[in-house]
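REVIEWER CHECKLIST
Item 1: Sequence provided? yes
Item 2: Single chain? yes
Item 3: Sequence as submitted:
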Amino acid sequence: MAKLIICNICLFVFVLKQEVNENSLKRLNGYLENLQKPGFRSFKPTQLTFYVREREPNSSNVQEPFSASGFRAVSFTLHTRDLLSTVLDILNSCSLSTEHIQSLNVNSQPHKEAKSTVNRPIKWDKTYYSFTGFKDPEEELEQAQRVETTLLSWLDYNEASAVKKLKKSLPLRKELERLKIELSHELQLSDIRWQRSWGIAHRCSQLHSLGRLVQQRPEILENVKGRTVVFTDRSGMSAAGHIMLGTMDVHHHWTKIFERLPNYYKLQKRLLLLEDRISQLLGGIQVIYIEELQPLFTLEEYFETLNSFYNKLRDSRLPFHPRSLRGLQMILESDRYAPSLHELGHFMIPTVCDPAALQWFIFAKAQEARENLKRKEEMMITEKELINTSTERFSLDRLYKDPSVSSAQMIDCCKRLLEESLPYLQGMHLCISHFYSVLQDGDLCIPWNWKN
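Item 4: Structure as written out by the authors:
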């Protein structure tokens, strides 16, 4: 039993470290891309943390935390403004060799000088090229350096790597689908989801853990029928009513969550009643919670937020006509101080908003909100149609988007994709995001505003 617990703990620690590394790699990728953008001058210092394997005790003066798991945490801040210095800083911070980089630096010195002299004895004035019609070598070099990554060039360069990773992941993908279907059927779940983009192997491991718990304690899982299970950073029940299983928690914590489900369901009924009371005080406007746009609240946290807002509204006695705002929607936000209207049609209301200011704002924006909601429905239909058309046109195995990509951005991206001929995408998994990347299981990520 002790060995099993230790194995589970080691697995969860490894997953956490890999997630930290993946997040740091994404931020590093963005920093390096900005370094290469022409005319980019605004650099915000970026602090990164990586877990690297221990090879031997570090004799340097830098104090780095070591662990018994075979990894050490390395933290550093990026603030350099050129690519070479940044790479050198990263390698030095991780105690990695920089000899090959230094040799490249030495070899590149003549090329740096060539940029100013273009390897010729005479440097002509710009007017010479304007008058003669000859091409300016310096200008051509600058234009070549300013060229941004294009979709076709990136796909051409990364297709082989993505195909290799995808083929390698196929057995695990089938295993993941099998486990998900079996557990959903056995527990009669509505769905199984993941909050983060963990790799296929990690997702399989999490489902295997849930499967073992089902075998060991089947009686505690009788109350999950019709629910959605979400693997995330913390355990409990979410504001949306989903059962959250923390990936860093052991079976003991998951067991407690399942045992507490009856109490969660009672609290959820109280929460729904509270939403109805707020709606009545605000003329019938519907209080909603949008997982993609709002922080991940637990049920208890969200109930306290609603309760505080309700008490403030009740004491203010705003004169809203009953059902005058039916059909409109609102979400509560704790990090805002002024109300606003989202492009998707819902009101974003701060929990600390002045009731009088709230009343004026809702009345002033009600018609615009209705128009935005209607446009949202149309956009969602269009988005779904374009995703289906693009999937069929390029013979994609899957086309999806990052939650941070809006429907308008997805529509624009798909329309432009359909104008291209992209044989590289056949059989691939394509994610529309904000950056270029090949994920560890072969999914291709491209920015929604890709260049052609």
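Item 5: Key structural point noted by reviewer: The chain has three domains: 2-152, 159-263, 266-348.
Item 6: Recommendation: ____
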